[in-house]
Amino acid sequence: MAQFHPLTVTDIHHTIRDAVVLTLKPENPEIFDFKQGQYLTFKRDFDGTELRRNYSICAGLDDGVLRVGIKRVDGGAFSTFANTNLKVGDTLQAMPPSGTFFTELEPDQAKSYLGFAGGSGITPVLSILKTVLAREPRATFTLVYANRAVNTIMFREELEDLKNRYMGRLTIIHVLESGQDMELFTGRVDQEKCENLFKHWIDVTSVTTAFICGPEPMMLAIADSLKTHGLEPDQIKFELFTESQQGRLAKQALAARAADQAGTEAQVTVEGVTRTFTMPKDQSILEAALDNALDAPFACKAGVCSTCKARVLEGEYEMLSNHALEDYEVEQGLVLTCQCYPLSDKIVVEYDTH
Ligand SMILES: Cc1cc2nc3c(=O)[nH]c(=O)nc-3n(C[C@H](O)[C@H](O)[C@H](O)COP(=O)(O)OP(=O)(O)OC[C@H]3O[C@@H](n4cnc5c(N)ncnc54)[C@H](O)[C@@H]3O)c2cc1C
Ligand code: FES
Q1: What PANTHER family does the entry give (predicted)?
Q2: Among the CATH numbers 3.90.180.10, 2.40.30.10, 3.30.70.120, 1.20.120.530, which is that of 5-94?
Q3: Atom of ligand 2 nearest to the CA of 336
């Protein structure tokens, strides 16, 4: 599960000045079959430290290629490497596609999708919109795409081409911090902006599913507004890119946990290998599994990506942060092991969740 596979970089395209779109060729294509909206976890050694980073697939299912878009973050290790050092012909190591930022395709249904993307948050939304427009012939898609200025819009030309190709089915609303004539399309996408968009341009009552990917405050404001306009929580799908800081409460909870000297007997299974060991109550299940030589999968270690997902079969636990699992998954006992700490004296965890 935590296995990495080689991908050859076959093309590097600069969509804007500080973002690249990489086309990747797997040695074994079946391993990289993906669902629209999923991401890849890459690993790379930087001066002796292994970093793992997630990048969403921006290709649609019918594009016939594997593609990711990487925006350079100031001082960011992997994104700067990808934007400045990576060359065609280089090899990257990635895990098979993962993530649940999609809904099942239903070609007979006339669905109405609404997508919100901020900056590089367009990548999974682009994959979704290309796929649903091609595979669900009666579907429509409205995209609200927030950027600082025109020259920071990733995939601008591709989006224009798609708009022409799917005339009447794809609507794109660009909201820019500056450089727009109409006030409605200028500024940040906050609750007030949503209210105005929903009043004048978007009929939320007809929306089947909304996909939101962007900075966390923007996502929360949009979700609140959608709920106010009648959307149910299960009609709203999120993908969060940035790691949130662990809150004060989480840190307090961990400090209290450190005082509990008893430890927990943990039984953890990864890819059929089971180990039993004693772990402290202030250590995450993921760190304990890695410390005990289990090849447990992970990427962000911040409760954002769901790569470290596992099922708790026995025992009590607390998950300090969860930006990736849906409520129904949590109800089924699924946890993000990087955020999951044992409460009981025994805990049984299985990583093979399928
Ligand atoms: C599920 C998922 C999918 C993702 N898909 C994409 C994608 O398709 N395209 C893409 O460009 N990125 C994507 N990301 C973000 C990506 O994984 C990295 O977090 C980002 O590229 C920064 O990594 P880095 O090694 O360059 O920076 P780091 O060296 O980790 O960080 C450097 C500094 O930048 C800050 N920082 C970290 N991440 C961000 C960010 N995203 N925005 C602003 N500041 C940040 C950090 O706090 C730190 O101060 C995704 C993240 C997740 C969890
Ligand atoms: S490693 Fe990303 S949620 Fe745990």
Answers
A1: 1,2-PHENYLACETYL-COA EPOXIDASE, SUBUNIT E, NADH OXIDOREDUCTASE HCR
A2: 2.40.30.10
A3: 4
Q: Which two tokens stand for residue 22?
A: 């990489």
The answer for residues whose C-beta is within 8 angstroms of residue 193's C-beta and 6 or more apart is: 175, 184, 187
Q: 112-239, what's its fold?
A: Rossmann fold (3.40.50)
What are the sequence ranges of the domains in the chain? Answer: 5-94, 112-239, 248-350
At 75-108, the pLDDT tens digits run: 999 999 999 999 999 999 999 999 999 999 999 9
Q: Determine which residue's CA is closest to atom 15 belonging to ligand 1.
A: 241
Q: Tokens standing for 45?
A: 């050694």
Please state the rounded mean pLDDT for residues 145-170: 96
- Give the CATH H-level superfamily of domain 248-350: Beta-grasp domain (3.10.20.30)
- Taking the CA of residue 323 as reference, the ligand 2 atom at the shortest distance is 3
| Residue closest by Cα to atom 52 of ligand 1 | 241
Q: Which pLDDT tens digit goes with each residue over 210-252?
A: 999 988 888 889 999 999 999 999 999 999 887 655 554 566 6
Give the model's pLDDT for residue 258. Answer: 63
Q: How many Å apart are CA 153 and CA 177, to the nearest integer? A: 12
Q: Strand pairing partners for 174?
A: 145
Report whether 145 contacts 172 (CB < 8 A): yes
